[in-house]
Amino acid sequence: MAGAADVVGVGLASVAIPAFGLIAVASRYRGKPGVRGFVVAVVGIGCWSLATGLRALVGDPWLQFGSAVGQLTAANVTILGWALLVAEFDRRRRIGLWSKPVAAALVIPTCTVALAVTSPWHHLVYTSGTVVTASGFRQFGLGPWYPIHVVYVLTLSIGAAVVLFRELPGSSGFHRRQVTLLFLGWLVGTLGTFDFFLKYFGPWPFPPYVDVTPVGFLVGSAVWGLALFRHDLFELVPVGRQTAVETMPDAVLTADVEGRIVDANPAARSLLASDPIRKPVSVVFADYPGLLEHYRDCEERTTDVQILDDGTVRHFSATTTPIVERGHRTGTVIVLRDVSALKRREQELDRHRQVYNRIVRHNLRNELTVIRGNAQEIARRSDGRMTEFAETIRDRSDELIETSEKARRIMRIIEADSYLLTVEARTLVDSIAAEMREQYPSASIETSGPAEAWVSAHEDLEVAVRNLVENAVVHNEGTPNVEITVAQADETVEITVADDGPGIPDNEITVLDRLTETALEHSNGAGLWLVNWIVTKSDGDLDFAVTDRGTTATVTVQAATVRGEDVTDPREMAH
Question: What pTM was estimated for this model as a whole?
């Protein structure tokens, strides 16, 4: 008839079955950081359970001694696996097993196992004194090396847990749940080790062959399994926030609610040329009142600051972001991003704009006006071919003057802070059609669409539509036929200009689509660029359809809700 020790032995040995089942599942994630540590730890738990159960089942002294050594070996394997799991999870990469740190970590466990096996000859791990219970279970005395083993195991186990615990404050979402489950699994398994201390050093109500430690670690490994199956422990290996902050080029500082700097990454320490930790924010940034004002307002804002670094002025974009947890502000993050190169580029562009405007507005326009006046005088005083040449010079001068005006307008649109106006599109196109008919009497220009179509667009929308209509008229070698259509959908309004001319060349449309110019693809018409920028500033779209029957240009802008104070008379636009 089976005794209590046999029942306990079989139960403890059976703990290995679910443990090895976890190993089979974890094998699907081979190659992921942390998998090897998980497998090693669970193998240790399974072997620990088998050795514990065997020790309770057998009565032979040498088999019981071998089982005790097996328990000791499995305990070391479990803790080493736990440490490897945490190390790889923390670093987000697999760790080389043939490295010096790993070799150093194996010194004491290797000595412990070797001394345990040879303990009958020197009694460093187990003494010669043995207590045999009525059921035949042998409880070995502990030698002088055993405390070293216990201290090592506890140090490695708790040290790994501390490393994991440090991940919690900077984690969130999946990562936080992963860290929490790993930590809880360790805590459950560690609580099971208290039976060892109670068994040897305190009151223990159960027979000595009852060892709940492997059971505790099995429950802990089950919690790890929850992280594995439900929270993708090995699939969703997050990028370490601490690593990212430590290596990023932006200076990052964290202040507590009392206004003291509590953390600073290497970039911040290098920039400030001192250690700002524990210093008040008001002292560290005493020379930057704008930044301090944003910090004290407890709002997320960005301001520009200039810092003198080794005699060089560097420009930074400083962002203050409050840290709020459970509705309460717990600190502030200050990020300083170096924008010196951007500032220099802005200054260069500003100088280029000034030179460009001076050349286009004054030099080029004035010289073209002189050329045009002289050409007109030559045409008046000459006849025949000379008159034709002079008129050609005058016409080309007019075109260049008009192009320069369009270029100036493009620069103004790009540089200015644009705002959208509410305007009635049908009235706008009817007004443009009337002006174009008067300017080009031979052209047929028709309009169609609803009586009213209110749109939200840039103030120069009238200029864009006028350019499209004028382009359709002047580039038609025959009698121009142009139709301007206004069509309204639920949220947009389309203004379509269709002509029967030769069509816009493909390279012109390609340049507009790419918003760039190359040596092989360049646009000759400033008018199309002007139209494109106006539509872009209107948050709209510009499309062209070219067929054998002509070109259709479609401007799509947002429909508007009419409010009296927002309405702009189309006749006042661009005037």
Answer: 0.46
- Distances in Å between the Cα of 277 and the Cα atoms of 78, 272, 284, 294, 296 are 39, 11, 10, 20, 19
As a whole number, mean pLDDT of residues 547-555 equals 85
CA 74 to each of CA 115, 116, 198, 356, 410: distance values in angstroms, whole numbers, following the listed order: 15, 12, 20, 80, 77
Find the helix or strand (DSSP H, E) in which 265 lies. Answer: none
The answer for residues whose C-beta is within 8 angstroms of residue 51's C-beta and 6 or more apart is 67, 68, 70, 71, 73, 74
Assess whether pLDDT exceeds 60 at residue 238.
no
Cα(423)–Cα(454) distance, integer angstroms: 6
| Amino acid code (one letter) for 89 | F
Of the listed ranges 267-271, 355-359, 530-534, the one predicted with least confidence = 355-359
With cut-offs at 50, 70 and 90, classify the pLDDT of residue 434.
very high
Q: Averaging pLDDT over each range in 70-74, 137-141, 238-242, which range is the top one?
A: 70-74
C-beta of residue 547 within 8 angstroms of C-beta of residue 504? no
- Helix axes of 526-537 and 461-474: crossing angle, nearest 10 degrees: 150
CA proximity to 434, closest of 466, 387, 400, 467: 466
What is the DSSP code string of 154-199?
HHHHHHHHHHHHTTSTT--HHHHHHHHHHHHHHHHHHHTTHHHHHH
How far the first Cα of the chain sits from its last, in Å, is 109
Question: What DSSP state is assigned to residue 273?
Answer: T
Taking 3-state DSSP, the helix, strand and coil percentages for the chain, each rounded to the nearest 5, stand at 55, 20, 25
Strands 481-488 and 444-448: parallel
Outline where 416-525 has alpha helix (H).
425-439, 461-474, 506-514
